[in-house]
Amino acid sequence: MELVHLLQASPAFFLGSVFVLGLMVGSFLNVVILRLPKMMVLDWQAQCREYLEQQPETETETLSLSKPASSCPHCGHSIRFYENIPVLSWLLLRGKCSSCKSPVSIRYPLIELLTGLLSVAVAWHFGFGWQALAALCLTWALIALSVIDIEHQLLPDSITLPFLWFGLVLSLFPVFADMRAALIGAMAGYLSLWLVYQAFKLVTGKEGMGFGDFKLLALLGAWLGWQALPIVILLSSLVGAVVGVILLTVQGRDRQTPIPFGPYLAAAGWIALLWGEQIKNAYLSFSGLAS
Question: What is the pLDDT of residue 175?
Answer without folding.
Answer: 94
